[in-house]
Structures are given as structure tokens and as C-alpha cells.
């Protein structure tokens, strides 16, 4: 098989070296490992299609890998798979400043796309702290959200067209030069969020946005999570709301202790608010702040340097989470009304299953997309805690996954968020595209 793959993409881009495969078969958190037979790195959509044909005909499973930042073992092989990396599909086309769009390869990192947009005087609407490694193809596959979802929406809302290598080894290119296109099925939407189960995204036409002329940022501290949730409810419907981030003071204490980045305000719960617009937003923020029940004077950033200082706290969270070893991560979507109850019960559930563990909560409260990370959680405690937490999420009216997908880690809990008819319909679509089920077989469905 390795020889045939080498003929398709070139011998320099195929390896079965055990050390390379071992490094590529572990997830971003380091908690989950698999086994692969080869790594192949195609350099064009046609080469991706050729690899898929070879693997399908040989009955070999394929796991697709982008930046490998999945937090739900979405890129971990389970069937001695061929790993198909999109890293060489990293071209970024010329930005169309009139139509505000750009065509990029699926393997381009988020940071690369952001730089291209910035150089053209525009911005890309999705931002993640993993921007230097996350690829836009993988982000589309999981419909990633991020720090500015409350304003610009998820990844799917940035996708104007897609190029996809299908499981049968053919290529699909859905491209339209116009924004309004109602000529049949919305094919790009079918592949966004499909987690690579229906095809391999090889290229994307992405929407860009005007850069706001004015920005103002604030961090507010709250004694009670319910008060913060009320503030978020007020803020999220404001015109110009660009970011609305919840930060648990427990994780802020860690960033202060370990990285020298303390919280700028007092409070057990912190809320980062950012407003943007074509006019100065300072007065709007001043009108907003007296309406929230904060427990300390807010820290406000009007100029760029002050704004960056406030954002450092949120950005530093990713760097401090691994202090106690690989954290156990829960990416959840909750209604605002259920967040305070979830946080309290999640701490109790963690204490019950892993008394030594430290639960910390943060995330994008504007759309209820939160990240619960359990630090210092042993592998022995993980199965019981994971199952209990999934049940709690469902009991609180939430979805078991928000922006990170289902992957293989959450596939057993899909039925908590999707009904049997939903799942049956998804299986029908999967079978139509991939009758033998060889592509990303470990992801999404629990067989």
C-alpha cells in the first residue's frame, strides 16, 4: 500500500516510520492514542482524490488530519488507518477586496488567513487561541466558533464555497461568484460540521469582513455567576458586540501564579466584553456598565495597548491548562438559563468522581459555548466522570458538543443531543457518500 501511495503523491510524502506514526496518532490533549499504518501528505486536490481511491479499493481506513487540534480525538486513528494530512494544501490566494473574499487551501492555518486579510485591510471573522496550528479545513469540518462568534457567527457562516475530494475518489468544487445563490442544494453546508465523514475538504472560498474603525474592551468581575449571566444576556444583543467571554477566577488565579498574568479586577467570575463599530464605542460602554451587577470597578481598555493587556488574560488560558498534565476537556453548548446551575453541579460531580481534580470554566458565553476543563484528572477517574458530565449537560438542556465536534470521544453520547430520526438520516447521508464507511470511520457514529 505504501508503494502505491508513493506513486500517487511522490515518495517524499509517504512514510510508515513507527516514530512518525506514533507522534501523529495521539490527540492534542495527549489523553487519547491510536495506531496508523502510514502517513500520506498529498499536494493537490487531485492527489487527495487519488489517495482516497487507492484506500477505498484496498479496503483501508483513512483518518484525515489538519492541524490536529481536535479536543475530542477526532484525528486519532482506530483501525490501523492511513493518515491523510492536508498540511501541504496551504496556499492562500489573492484577497478580493471588492467582494471581500479569499480562496485558500484546507491546510492553511488560521493565522495565515488572518494575516492575509489584515494585509488587505480586512478581517476574518473566526478567531481561536490555537490560531497558529488550527487549519481552516479542520475548522470548517467541525464548524468551529471561537472568540468572535457572537458577532460574526461560526465557521460555516464564513464559507462561501468548497472544494472537496469525495470518498469515491472524485472532486467536487462548489464555487459561486455571487453571494446570493439558490440553485439547488447548499452543498458546502453539507460538509461543514460533517467532521470529514462525507469527504475531505481541500479548499475553501472564505468570506472576509470590513475592519471596524473603533474598539473598546472591558473586564468586569462578579461575585455570582448568575449576575454574570444576566450581564451576558444584556450584552449579547447589543449592536456592535464583538466578544463576550466568561473566565472562571480559578483559571485566572493560575494564569497569575504561573504566567504572571493576574486578573485586572476582583470577582469569582469574570466577563470580557468588547464593542466595535464605525464610531467611538466608549460612550456606549459607559452606558452599559452601570446596568450590570459587578462587584468591582471594571477594567477598561480604550487604546490598543490597554485592550491587548485585557485580552492577555483570556489568551493565556490555553497556555496554563496543561500545568497539571493533560486536562479532561468538555466543550458544551448551554442555554444561558442553565449555565449557573451547570457550573455548580459540575463542580460537585467532579468532586464526587475525582476529588483531587480542579474544574475550571471559560468560553464564549455570548452563544452559550463554554469549555469546562478538569485539571489533575486521573485516567482511572475519567470514564465515570465523562459519562456523568455528559448526562449533566443533557439535563441542563445543552448539547454535548458545540464547536469541537463529536469526534470519537463523544460518539457514544450523540443520542443525548440528536433524536433517533436525526441520527438515522445522518447515517443515510453517510452511506450515500461512503458506502463502505472507510473515511473517518471512528468519528461521529457509535457502531
Automatic annotation (TrEMBL):
Any Pfam family matching the protein: FAD-oxidase_C
One MF term in the entry's GO annotations: FAD binding
Top-level taxon: Bacteria
Signal sequence region: none
GO biological process, one term: respiratory electron transport chain
InterPro entries named in the record: FAD-bd_oxidored_4_C, FAD-bd_PCMH, FAD-bd_PCMH-like_sf, FAD-bd_PCMH_sub1, FAD-bd_PCMH_sub2, FAD-linked_Oxase-like_C, FAD-oxidored/transferase_4, Oxid_FAD_bind_N
Cofactor: FAD
Occurrences of domain FAD-binding PCMH-type (ranges): 32-211
SUPFAM superfamilies linked to this entry: FAD-binding/transporter-associated domain-like, FAD-linked oxidases, C-terminal domain
Keywords from the named record: FAD, Flavoprotein, Oxidoreductase
Family affiliation: Belongs to the FAD-binding oxidoreductase/transferase type 4 family.
Protein name: Oxidoreductase
Amino acid at each position: 500500500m505504501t508503494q502505491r501511495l508513493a506513486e500517487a503523491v511522490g515518495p517524499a510524502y509517504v512514510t510508515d516510520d513507527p516514530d512518525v506514526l506514533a507522534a501523529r496518532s495521539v490527540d492534542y490533549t495527549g489523553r487519547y492514542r491510536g495506531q496508523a499504518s502510514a502517513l500520506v501528505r498529498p499536494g493537490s486536490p487531485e492527489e487527495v482524490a487519488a489517495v482516497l481511491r487507492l484506500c477505498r479499493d484496498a479496503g483501508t481506513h483513512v483518518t484525515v488530519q489538519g492541524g490536529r487540534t481536535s479536543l475530542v480525538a477526532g484525528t486519532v486513528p482506530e483501525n490501523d488507518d492511513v493518515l491523510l494530512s492536508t498540511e501541504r494544501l496551504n496556499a492562500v490566494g489573492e484577497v478580493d477586496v471588492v467582494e471581500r473574499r479569499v480562496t485558500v487551501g484546507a491546510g492553511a492555518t488560521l493565522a495565515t488567513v488572518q494575516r492575509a486579510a489584515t494585509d488587505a485591510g480586512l478581517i476574518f471573522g473566526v478567531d481561536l487561541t490555537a490560531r497558529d496550528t488550527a487549519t481552516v479545513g479542520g475548522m470548517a469540518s467541525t464548524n468551529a466558533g471561537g472568540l468572535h462568534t457572537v458577532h460574526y457567527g461560526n465557521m460555516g457562516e464564513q464559507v462561501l464555497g468548497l472544494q472537496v475530494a469525495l470518498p469515491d475518489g472524485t472532486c467536487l468544487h462548489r464555487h459561486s461568484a455571487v453571494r446570493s445563490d439558490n440553485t439547488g442544494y447548499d452543498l458546502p453546508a453539507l460538509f461543514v460540521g460533517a467532521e470529514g465523514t462525507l469527504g475531505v475538504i481541500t479548499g475553501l472560498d472564505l468570506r472576509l469582513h470590513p475592519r471596524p474603525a473603533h474598539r473598546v474592551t472591558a473586564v468586569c468581575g462578579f461575585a455570582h455567576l448568575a449576575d454574570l449571566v444576566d450581564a451576558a444576556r444584556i450584552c449579547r444583543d447589543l449592536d456592535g458586540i464583538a466578544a463576550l467571554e466568561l473566565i472562571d477566577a480559578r483559571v485566572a488565579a493560575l494564569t497569575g501564579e504561573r504566567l504572571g498574568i493576574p486578573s485586572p479586577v476582583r470577582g469569582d467570575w469574570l466577563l470580557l466584553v468588547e464593542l466595535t463599530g464605525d464610531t467611538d464605542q466608549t460612550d456606549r460602554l459607559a452606558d452599559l456598565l452601570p446596568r450590570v451587577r459587578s462587584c468591582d470597578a471594571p477594567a477598561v481598555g480604550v487604546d490598543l495597548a490597554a485592550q491587548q493587556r485585557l485580552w492577555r488574560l483570556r489568551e493565556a488560558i490555553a497556555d496554563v491548562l496543561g500545568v497539571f498534565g493533560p486536562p479532561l476537556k468538555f466543550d458544551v453548548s448551554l442555554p444561558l438559563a442553565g449555565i449557573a446551575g451547570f457550573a455548580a453541579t459540575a463542580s460537585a460531580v467532579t468532586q464526587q468522581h475525582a476529588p483531587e481534580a480542579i474544574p475550571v470554566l471559560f468560553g464564549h458565553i455570548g452563544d452559550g459555548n463554554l469549555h469546562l476543563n478538569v485539571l489533575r484528572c486521573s485516567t482511572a477517574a475519567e470514564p465515570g466522570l465523562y459519562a456523568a458530565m455528559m448526562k449533566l449537560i443533557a439535563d441542563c438542556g445543552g448539547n454535548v458538543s458545540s464547536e469541537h465536534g463529536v469526534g470519537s470521544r463523544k460518539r457514544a453520547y450523540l443520542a443525548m443531543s440528536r433524536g433517533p430520526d436525526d441520527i438515522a438520516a445522518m447515517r443515510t447521508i453517510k452511506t450515500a457518500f461512503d458506502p463502505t464507511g472507510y473515511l473517518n470511520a471512528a468519528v461521529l457514529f457509535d457502531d
